[in-house]
Amino acid sequence: MYKKILIFTVAVLLVLGAVQPAMAAGPLGTLRSGIQGLVPAKTNVAWQPLNQTLSDLRLQRTKTVVISGIDAAIDGLGAAENGIDRSKLTDGQKAGLKAQIEANITWFEGKKQDVQASKDVAGALQNAKQASERWNEVFPGFKKEIGLMACDNFDAELTKARQATAIVSSKIASLKAQGKDTGNLEKALASYNGHIDGASRDVANARSDFNGIGGPSDGHFAAGLKQLGSAQKEMNGGYSDLKAIYRLLLGNSVKTT
Fold this sequence. Notes:
Layout: H1 2-25, H2 27-38, H3 47-86, H4 91-116, H5 121-177, E1 180-181, H6 183-211, H7 220-250, E2 255-256
Helix pairs in contact: 1-3, 3-4, 3-5, 4-5, 5-6, 5-7, 6-7
């Protein structure tokens, strides 16, 4: 996707540079040179249609490049919307983000029409600039918002995990008061807490990465996702410890001292 977006941000710049010299060196340029040798120097009558043709070709080429870039932006927003559907965000979070994406897709579709209606290259390039600015503002914002929402959801799960710690700690204290050996329980709880602490650090790092997002191809989003992946592994490890704790408690594996 980012390779396609590169067309949008770079290729438009080629229109004023590489495209015009290429045209001048091509068949039309050769034809023009031949006509110049045949038409008297003071006569411009034969030049007007050819100049108009060059202008039209340049404008159409500009429109094609700009519209291609806008289509890539729309594709990018569509991919983001599909990703939101597959995410673990709440239904409310998904609905809010998707509404924003749809509004921006509508904006870009309208900008395509503006480009197509442009009467000259300057107008087409002005629309391209507006679309580029919109993309550079909107898409990083979506990625940042999605990432931070994922962190919020993770933090909610970590809060529940801490509640489990409190419950098990209370149970251990009660068993100790009954004179029972809680060594295995305490080891399992320590391992569990270690995983929860690790997940908490990973989520904090992910939040920092997401807050650092500054552009469409910024590496902070990928870094944040990697941190959340690490946090999930820690949570999975904690869940395994929690199952072991329940087995110790419910299976009467706690022995009297």
